C-alpha cells in the first residue's frame, strides 16, 4: 500500500532504483542535491539541475515543466553521499506563479522500478516561498528511507542552496534559472493561480481555507483580464475608476465536444480532479467578465447622461432627448453583448458538466449518482472528496463539485446555528440542528467511503445522546470504533485517548522513530465527530479539543464538529482560534464562501442523500463488510 506522508514523516524504500515524480500544475524547475551525512553539499558538481542534469546516481529533466520524472539509482551513489534532496523552484518570467502560496500544492511521489507508488506527499502550507525542498532520500544505518520535508525558502533557490552549504549559492542559482529560461514560455491563455472557495471576510464566523487549483492546459472561455494573484490577505485588487471595455463576442467557431478527463494528470482520478477545478476557474472568469462588462455599460450610460445634463444647450429639448436615447441604445447594445458572451460560455460549461458529472468516481460524485450502487472500498484513497456543490447566481443550475484534498489539512465544522439565507430563515432551530447532524453523518460516510477498509477510524462524541437517531447508520452498521461516547466521562476518555495518540506520533516524527511506536499501535487515520458541543465539556476537555484541531491533522487525527457557535458564547474569545481553524460548512444553501481572486460570493450546497434512498446504508454496509474481511 502506498504511504501517504505528512511533513517530517519517513518511509523505508524497497529498492535502490527509483523514480521521483512531480506534479505541480504549473512550470517548476526540478533539481537534486547530493549531500553528506549532515546534508551539506560540497560543490556545484554535487547538484543535478537542468544545466547539468546528470550526476552520479541521479538524472533530472533539462527544462521547466508542470510534471517531472527524476531517475535515481541509490546503488550508483558515491559512498560519501548520504542524502539526496529533491528541489523545486519557480522559474522567473514563465507566465506562472511567483510564489508557491498562490498556486496548487505540488504533489510528489516515489515509485519503484515497476512504476508502483511507494510513497506520496502533497506539499501544503507554503506561502511566499519560491523554492522548496520537497523530500529527501537518506541513508541511516545502511538503510535508505524517504522523508517528506516541505521546507520552503522565501529567498528562492539561492537561499535554499546556501542553506545546504553550496559555495557561491547566488551564482549557482542564477545559472540554474538561466538554463531553463529559453525553454519556458507562457501559455497562450495563461491561467492565474488562485485559492478557491474561501469563506467571506464579512462573515464573523468564517475563516480562510486553502483549496488551491491551477489548470495550465485548459483553454478557458474569453474573460476579463485576470487580476493579479491575491496576497496573503486574499483581497482582490481595486476596480479601476474607468471600467475596462466589455468583452466582444468571439467569431463563431466550433468548439470541441467536452470529454470527461480532458485535463492533465497521471490517472483518471487526477485528470477529473483537475478538470473539475478547471471548470470552477472558467465559471469564475466568465462571470467576472460578465459583471465587469455590465459595470462598464452602466458607467458609460451614467457618464453620457451626465454630459447631456451638464450642457445647457442639450439639457432640454429634442437634442437632449436624442442624446439620451442614443446613450440608452448603446447601453442596451453593450448589455446584450455581455449577455451573449455569458450565455455562450455558460452553455459550454453546462455541456461539459453534463459529461463530467456522470463520469466522476464515487468520492467526487453526488449521492444520486449510480456509481454508488457499484461501490466497493478503494485500494488507494482518492485525491479529494466532495463536500458539496458551488454555484453563482448567474446560473444556479450549473453546480461545480466542491472538492477538498485528502488527507484533510484542517478540521470541518457543520454550523448548526441560524444562517443568513432565506433557506435557513424558514427553519426553526431544532430543524437546523437536525439537518446539521444529518449533513455531518453524510460527510462522515463519504470520508469513510474514500479510504481503504480499516484506514480511517471514526469516534463519536454525543454527550447528551440527542444524536442517537442520526448516528444510527454509523452505529448499526458497525463502522465506528465504538458506541458514541456519552456524558462528561465519555468525552474525557475519548479526548484523552486521541490526545495521547497525537503526542506519541509527534514524538515519533520528530525523533525519526516511527518504527518504535508501541506494539499493536493502530496506524489508521482517526476522525473525531463532536456533537452538541460544548455540552459535557469542562475546561480541560475544551483545551484538548483545541489541541486536536491544531496539531491533529499533521499526524492523521481529524475533527468534524457539529455545533452552534452561540452555544459556546460563555467561553468568549478563547474559542475564536478553534472556529477559525475549521472549514465552515452549512446544512442548508448559504453564500458564505467567497473567491478572493475575483470577489465572487459562491453559494455552497451541502451533499444530501435523496429522500427514501438506502444508498447511505448500502455504502456503510460495504465498508463494514470489507473491514470484517480484513480482520478475518
How would you describe the overall organization of this protein?
The protein has helices at 156-163, 169-180, 268-310, 318-359, 422-425, 429-450, 468-477, 487-510, 539-551, 576-581, 615-631, and strands at residues 3-4, 10-12, 17-35, 47-48, 54-55, 58-59, 65-73, 83-89, 107-111, 117-122, 131-140, 143-153, 194-196, 198-199, 211-213, 384-391, 400-405, 412-415, 456-461, 525-531, 557-563, 583-585, 590-594, 601-605. The protein has 632 residues and is α+β, with helices and mostly antiparallel strands. The strands form 4 sheets. Strands 1, 2, 3, 4, 5, 6, 7, 8, 9, 10, 11 and 12 form a 12-stranded mixed beta sheet that branches. Strands 14-23-24-16-17 form a 5-stranded antiparallel beta sheet. Helix 1 (156-163) packs across helix 2 (169-180), helix 3 runs antiparallel to helix 4 and helix 6 (429-450) crosses helix 11. Mean pLDDT is 83; it is low at 183-253.
